[in-house]
Write a structure and sequence with these properties.
The complex is a heterodimer. Chain A is 74% helix and 2% strand. Chain A is mostly helical. In chain B, the strands form 4 sheets. In chain B, strands 1, 2, 3, 6, 11, 12 and 13 form a 7-stranded mixed sheet that branches. In chain B, strands 4-5 form a two-stranded antiparallel sheet. In chain B, strands 7-10 form a two-stranded parallel ribbon. The two termini of chain B are 28 Å apart.
Chain lengths: 291, 442
């Protein structure tokens, strides 16, 4: 009996906060509110429509485009962010770094800033007319357009890199700390320098941790909402349906169509699952090759 | 402007129709009085009429507490509990209505009313409020009327007016424009001096909406049992042509509204006019205080030779469909929004620009303002308050359409589209959104 009792808190919380909402979303996505004419008579109940809401969602070009946008975003932002995280982790792990705790704190600190606040801060730096950064660049003869149609996505990506490099550094660094020290000693005896050790020993040894950060980043990027929603308040070049989650917000909160929103949410969930599995497969192959 | 423009006839037809509405409402009131019922006794009065009841009221106008206190002192049978709306209280109300825990009266902008009516959340209060229809002008009354039903009482209004920098116009010897032709000419003269006529802010749809309203247009309409898409109709296209000219000639400064960059541009005198709504001067004072004394207000430049004004819609008091005390709730809403006593609280203590006609007589609106060089700016807004065409209809997907307009205008600002193309695109999206909501569209 004890094992069941002990697992009860988890099962209860999982059911209430994970399983139930997913089931409600899937169920809700199969219905629509029945209305007629002008609709001023109020709702006439709901009706089962099968997959109609999914057809409707996928028939909206801006919703489909929003996936393309976050995938493009992810393909650029994730490698830069994780590259930096790995670099910092390796530096902190090597003996050469001085004032290590201080610099670790500096790299980690942005993660402690809520994303909305981070977006507001960066938004201020991006905005012509008030930004010291734009002014300084103008002084150097650079006309910086952080909020233009072609650049605003990367300005948002920059906020993501700034915010999340720290936490990913910590994950990789912790993994590095767990590598047995005698492996390094053996490497040194074989004549490997710091660089060689890093490339041939450390990175392969922490590959599972790196994969974990890749997975988290992919999931996080598919759910991108706060940063673009905040930046939208200072530039209309971020549309109302810029990311999949913004499209859902648009359909539900602004448009009042909860059933369509539920279908969109399920689609986001499925895409996340598929991309995660693909990343996982690719990584397994990669890890095996390396070891 | 084309002399064949059909708007005058549409407008006057609507005006006649409105007069008929008022007349028939008066007739109904008269018949009710003859029948000895007394028009304040509603036919749907609940069983507990006569027993003291307590109703809940949510609003955001400053110092409403004082109005509620005065009402409670005089009306022991209808006690009102007031809750001040802050933050996302407005977003909570739809769920509260669905859960049966909503207030009995609450404040809602007319732009968001249709969506709530379609969701079945608002009460048709025609039976309770028809006797105060003569306290409103036709356009204000039309804004709460859908089909045969009335769903709220307008509280505050936002007629349009043009705020302009007197110093800039005086210094360069440019006449203050009174029509759109003059407005564009003034813009060309200002451009020579390196000053923008006005702003183009894709993130603030209000400028566009109020001007389409002024031109006798709308984003949506009703034709029998179907919604119509009006976003790219003739009146809108006329405004689009004017804006396109101004944009193409470089008379508009493209800047996102409400941003520090925007206020900096206004403060620096880069923008000579702001053609916006009656509630905007307060924000102007708050954000560009350094320019105090340099501003004045006049009516919006007339479009197509017609003496019409724009509007930003109304704030209204509405009653949820499932309230237990509809008659009492309506009684209180009528007192607050249409009686001299209620209106004086709203105007003198709440600082609103009233929607009801008796409120427009209130002396408290007529104060000289240092910021506007001692001008009594409400003299202009009062003059304009009843000039908004009654052609405007908020559609069932108004919020979505407004977001679509913002996104499309951003592309116009970037030179990817013209205003006319943007409107066609938004109209197509709007049609689809109405269909997706399960409604009929022509």
């Amino acid at each position: 009996m004890a094992p069941y009792l002990l697992s009860l808190p988890f099962v209860a919380l999982f059911t209430v906060f994970m399983a139930a909402p997913i089931l409600v979303a899937v169920w809700s996505s199969l219905f629509r509110v029945r209305r007629s004419g002008l609709g001023l008579g109020g709702n006439e109940g709901t009706e089962f429509v099968g997959l109609d809401n999914y057809v409707l969602a996928l028939g909206r070009p801006e919703f489909v485009e929003s996936f393309g946008r976050v995938l493009l975003y992810g393909m650029v932002q994730v490698p830069i962010m994780l590259g930096l995280a790995l670099l910092f982790a390796l530096l902190f792990d090597s003996a050469v770094t001085r004032f290590k705790p201080f610099f670790q704190l500096v790299v980690f600190l942005p993660y402690a800033v809520p994303t909305v606040v981070a977006a507001l801060l960066w938004g201020f730096l991006y905005q012509p007319g008030v930004s010291p950064l734009v002014e300084w660049l103008a002084g150097l003869g650079v006309d910086a357009q952080f909020l233009a149609p072609g650049t605003v996505l990367w300005s948002i990506a920059n906020i993501g890199v700034w915010s999340y490099t720290g936490i990913n550094m910590i994950i990789i660094y912790s993994a590095l700390q767990a590598v047995p020290r005698d492996v390094y000693e053996a490497a040194r005896l074989d004549g490997a320098g710091e660089l060689r050790t890093a490339l041939s020993i450390k990175i392969p040894m922490v590959a599972p941790a790196i994969f974990l950060t890749v997975l988290f980043s992919i999931i996080g990027n598919l759910q991108l909402f706060n940063e673009p929603a905040v930046i939208r308040s200072i530039t209309s070049n971020v549309t109302a349906t810029y990311t999949p989650n913004m499209s859902i917000y648009q359909a539900t909160t602004v448009g009042g169509n909860a059933n369509l929103g539920a279908a969109m949410a399920v689609i986001v969930g499925i895409v996340t699952l598929v991309v995660s599995v693909l990343a996982s497969r690719a990584s397994n192959r990669g890890t095996k090759g390396a070891l | 402007m084309a002399p064949m423009d059909p708007r005058p006839s549409t407008a006057s037809r609507a005006r006649r129709h409105g007069a008929g509405l008022v007349a028939s409402a008066a007739l109904i009131a008269l018949l009710a009085a003859c029948a000895g019922g007394g028009s304040s006794e509603s036919p749907a009065a609940p069983a507990d009429a006569g027993e003291p009841v307590t109703i809940e009221f949510w609003g955001w106008v400053p110092n409403l507490e004082e109005a509620v206190e005065a009402w409670n002192a005089e009306n022991p049978d209808i006690q009102v509990e007031f809750h001040r709306m802050t933050g996302d209280d407005g977003d909570k109300i739809p769920s509260a209505i669905d859960a049966g825990t909503a207030p009995d009266v609450f404040q809602l902008g007319t732009a968001g009313m249709v969506e709530q009516i379609i969701a079945g959340r608002l009460l048709d209060i025609s039976d309770y409020v028809e006797d105060v229809s003569d306290k409103y002008d036709e356009t204000a009354w039309a804004s709460v009327t859908f089909g045969e039903s009335i769903y709220g009482l307008p509280q505050d209004a936002g007629p349009s007016g043009m705020m302009y920098r007197t110093d800039i116009f005086a210094e360069h010897g440019i006449e203050v424009p009174t029509t759109w032709e003059e407005y564009l000419d003034a813009g060309r003269a200002l451009k020579e001096e390196g000053i923008y006529l006005a702003q183009l802010s894709p993130n603030e749809a209000g400028f566009w909406l109020q001007q389409v309203w002024q031109a006798g247009g709308s984003l949506a309409g009703i034709d029998g049992d179907q919604w119509t898409v009006e976003t790219n109709n003739e009146a809108s296209m006329e405004v689009a042509a004017l804006w396109q000219t101004a944009l193409d000639e470089g008379l508009f400064k493209v800047v996102e509204m409400w941003t520090p960059e925007y206020w900096a541009a206004v403060n620096n005198g880069e923008i000579a006019t702001i053609n916006y709504l009656a509630w905007f001067p307060a924000l102007l004072k708050e954000n560009v205080g350094e320019t105090s004394g340099l501003w004045a207000v006049t009516h919006s430049p007339r479009i197509g030779g017609e003496e019409t004004a724009g509007s930003g819609g109304y704030g209204a008091n509405v009653i949820p469909a499932n309230t237990e005390h509809p008659a009492q709730a309506a009684e209180f809403a009528k007192w607050l929004n249409t009686s001299d006593e209620g209106l004086s609280f709203l105007i003198e203590r709440g600082g609103i620009f009233p929607a009801a006609l008796p409120g427009l007589e209130n002396e408290a609106l007529l104060v000289e303002d240092e910021f506007f060089g001692g001008q009594v700016i409400n003299e202009v807004f009062l003059e304009e308050a009843t000039k908004a065409p009654s052609t405007w209809v908020y559609g069932p997907t108004h919020n979505l359409t407004q977001e679509a307009l913002k996104d499309a205008f951003a592309r116009v600002a970037n030179g990817e589209l013209t205003f006319a193309e943007a409107l066609d695109q938004v109209a197509a999206d709007q049609r689809q959104d109405i269909l997706d909501a399960g409604l009929a569209v022509k």
